Amino acid sequence: MTPLSPQPSLSRIRIGSAPDSWGVWFPDDPAQVPWQRFLDEVAQSGYEWIELGPYGYLPTDPAVLTEETARRGLKVSAGTVFTGLHHGEAVWEKTWAHVADIAALTRAMGASHLVVIPSFWRDDKTGEVLEPATLTPAQWRDLTSLTERLGREVRERYGLRIVVHPHADTHVDTEENVVRLLDGTDPDLVSLCLDTGHYAYCGGDSVKLIETYGERIGYLHLKQVDPEVLADVRAKGTPFGPAVAQGVMCEPPSGVPELGPVLEAAQRLDVDLFAIVEQDMYPCEPDRPLPIAVRTRAFLRSCGA
């Protein structure tokens, strides 16, 4: 529920938003708002931090992007990459080519995190099953070892820390699979981007994960799930993309998990953390995101963030 009065300040939490909250999933799509409008509106909503979103949506020239963000009072917290490292060494070179450009821009913008999203086992637009939903033991070994390699290479070459993002319709989704990834990787090389919405979508408890694996939490994405829509999605086996179009990710504080307790648990870790709002809304009408963003920022302030 919405707190009736402001809560004690969550001094270690830095709040931001992302292109995702403006319905942006792709570098270029006529259904999405222009990048200039996103930057204008995210600043107007009261956010100071943003993510890069899909590479190529925002300008990829650091000088241009620095000018555009600075004049709006914005700073970049992280870039995002997509990987399929469970496929083994055969995909390493292609993966690194994708990662390197994004890591370079991320570092040039003064950020220190790279959000790593595992590849989807079914297409997020069409729902086509691309591969089995469960990894073999050999694939798990490839996933963990190459994720560690990615963490090491990104840190050594770009000074960034990778944070792996559990995501619906990927192989890192449920509590069991998230814990398996964490237990199978070096804490010095691999941290977690805990997305509260995706974790709830897949049956996980964010507060419990923070309390149990707090030293592995390196970054947060804040979003909520509509329980009624989620029940329908689960009953029908709806793929993630159509589920988003159905409204499975909803405006806080109307869904789950409650974000106040999540932020309080994160604050108790006594480390500086980014908490980036991501309300998946692809596709959405161009005038829809701004009012939601303004209300969400006000709600988070009422939580002390």
TrEMBL record:
Q: Which SUPFAM superfamilies match?
A: Xylose isomerase-like
Recorded hits in InterPro entries, A to Z, give: IolE/XylAMocC-like, Xyl_isomerase-like_sf, Xyl_isomerase-like_TIM-brl
Residues in a coiled coil are none
- Domain Xylose isomerase-like TIM barrel: from-to ranges: 39-280
Looking at the Swiss-Prot or TrEMBL record, what is one Pfam family this protein matches?
AP_endonuc_2
Q: What protein am I looking at?
A: 2-keto-myo-inositol dehydratase
